[in-house]
Hints:
Shape: globular
Order of helices and strands: EHEHEHEHEHHEHHE
CATH class: Alpha Beta
CATH topology: Rossmann fold
Bound molecules: NADP nicotinamide-adenine-dinucleotide phosphate
Number of strands: 7
Structural class: alpha/beta
Number of domains: 1
Amino acid sequence: xxxxxxTGASRGLGAVIARELADAGWAVAVNYASDAQGAANVVxxxxxxxxxxxxxxxxxxxxxxxxxxxxxxxxxLGPVDLIVNNATGPQPEMPLMEQSWRTYLDQLEFFVKAxxxxxxxxxxxxxxxxxxxxxxIGSEVAELGNxxxxxxxxxxxxxxxxxxxxxxxxxxxxxxxxxxxxGWIPVERHAGASQQAMDNYLAQTPLSHFGKPEDIAHAVVFxxxxxxxxxxxxxxxxNGGRTLL
Length: 245
Ligand SMILES: NC(=O)c1ccc[n+]([C@@H]2O[C@H](COP(=O)([O-])OP(=O)(O)OC[C@H]3O[C@@H](n4cnc5c(N)ncnc54)[C@H](OP(=O)(O)O)[C@@H]3O)[C@@H](O)[C@H]2O)c1
């Protein structure tokens, strides 16, 4: 059984991506930093459906923890074949003059540094096996350039460019790297979103409705599958047509 690591899978999109990968036959490491109960619930659900999974507690922005976490996963499930870089910390919005370099670095730690350090940890094994997949979870904001969000938007933009560079460099070794770019997909943390904010968003969405976490998970399952063997360096936008141009 091939092994997938989904970072930040104790809730939100990551939890659903983990469940859908398990349904598709992957053994899944459900990473989280603090919500042990949430991660355990995801693992329980996977096992109840007949799948294989384990929890994997480590902060993706701490290199020592991350390396230790991969070793724990190797012992529990086997070496990782697929990394889904999904984890995110807080995503504060603020006017430009309140944005400091630190607020940019905070986002880059999740969307560039953590994926890089995870890749470094698995790459010797992937090179030896001439296989391996990375799926980065980006965002439509990299293209839309939402105001008050330069910290987050620029880190997601960097994640997209990194995806393309890694894809070219690793293609000769049979390793693919792709990015899924969701629009606003309501998850637990959006419970308090105002009706006004939702209406404004949908007014700019050609399909006129919100996507579901399953929409994102199905795209990840596809890109992880052998049906996507010939796809690398791509961005798949899942946002109801908001970035058509
Ligand atoms: N939902 C959307 O509308 C949307 C739209 C575009 C892009 N995205 C992207 O999709 C991804 C998931 O977003 P989401 O909305 O599902 O987020 P979320 O609900 O806030 O979940 C974030 C996950 O990351 C984990 N996490 C936080 N800090 C961590 C750390 N240091 N190490 C490891 N895990 C950590 C959290 O677990 P713990 O609490 O246990 O640490 C949680 O499982 C993100 O990359 C986000 O930028 C989401």
